[in-house]
Amino acid sequence: MAGQEVAISLGNDTYRDYSGAALARMLEVNRSTWLRVYAPHWAWLKDEFWLSDINALTDSFINTMQD
Length: 67
Prior knowledge:
mainly alpha
């Protein structure tokens, strides 16, 4: 789900992240629990997907330029 959110956000200028309340409902936890326990992990996971996408695009561009 984090990967999908990052992919959508990269291709859509009007995309907004899921709110903490919406994600808490999906996991069936309180919003405060989401913010305290899960939110830091969610942010880290999205950052990792974003970096992975950027690195793949950069590598692809570099390989295209070398050919």
